[in-house]
Amino acid sequence: MTERSVASTTGRIIVGVVGIAVGAAVVAAATVLPLPSLETTPAGQVVTPVPLDPQRVCAGSVLRLSDAEGQQATTASAVGEARIATSSSTGSESAEALAGADGSSSSPQLVTAGLEGDEVPLIAASQSQSVASDELVGFASSSCAEPSSSTWLVGGSTETGRVSLITLVNPSDVNATVDLGITAETGRVQGPGIEGIVVGPRSQRVVPLSGFETGLLSPVVHVTSRGGQIVATLQESIVRTLDPGGVDVISGGAAPSRTTVVPGIIVRGGETLETALADPDAGDLQSALRLLAPGDSPARVSISLAADDGTGTTFDTRIESGLVTDVPVDGLADGLYTATITSDVPVVAAVRTSALSADGAVDLSWASSAPALSGETLVSVPDGDGARLTLANPTDVPVTATVAIDGDDEREVEVPAGANLAVRVSSGDSVRLSGADGLRAAMSFSADGAVAAWPVVSPLPASSPVTVYP
Questions:
Q1: In Å, how far are 13, 115, 364, 433, 457 from 93, measured between CA atoms?
Q2: Of all residues in the chain, what percent carry a pLDDT higher than 70?
């Protein structure tokens, strides 16, 4: 090889090595030096929506699936008329009837209180009804609730002689599309028509629970809606052989929680009921706590049942996830009780009790769980004997609340930690609660062969600030 060829080759090798070294230096510098970054913060504006007039919706009259002659067994018809009690902090609430189910005269009511400037008034409404019509005999009372997109209904049955009707009221001006999540002692209930139920604007629709599955001992129904928000209740009536066994309208209870409180549980005529339980068809006369852990894990549950005089009992149990469990409650003396359920996973709960009158008339009550009170809360007391407002304190510290009846009879009541107390009220009273944050509350009624209970719920925030982006 000539010297020139050697030099040329050597030069190319040196240039290549230098090029590689320069490239490596550039790469190394790129990993050390910060790269320029481009960030964009979208322009947003915090907006507080204008609050709407507060509303409450009452379910209306007790219903049956037949007309007055016992025909048309798939059509809902009204039995009698519910009595509505309303009140507001301004004294200017109004009520209007919405369209009843299947064209009936059930007359669900929309109760509204108008805004006064920027002030959102407190409003409350409730209903009650005594019925004595063939197979429907008993006393029913329920709260008139704020429309919602999610409601838990714990109670009912589709065994022989038991009729459970889901009532859906849409007070809005648009269609509401409703899905039902039904769970029972055998697990999730599936079937056509369980989703996509359309409830027309400003109207009521009734869905028989037996239309999805008969023979359910212990159903729990989670009602969710899209479009218009709704108010859902569950009506149960019982006939044992040929004898009426009571009627109740079950209000929505608290969402699943690790601390669940059921105030307003009425135990009445226990000795008489014990005798009646000898009838094999009367098993659901027995008081029972219904529980469901709707998640994927079983629940270890501690249950405390306490009367307002401080007596009671405590016991533990375990329930499987996704299966509804009825826990019998025995040996309680007559009185007004609160059940406090603590568990390691969220659960929903309600308590069923019955009362038997001296002349043999039977009634039933489903006490639903109550959410924690927050801010000022107004309660309207409907017609009914033995009315009591129960305040329960599941916290570790005493709570002193102010109870004002009809705006002038004002008193402070202290509810000790872990205790409950009952306040005597009368039909037509308007009760205002303040300073009761963290307490749970319920209205209950107790008379000879007539019992009912429903939870007291604080109003939702009128409006919350939101950030709007272009």
A1: 95, 10, 32, 19, 18
A2: 86
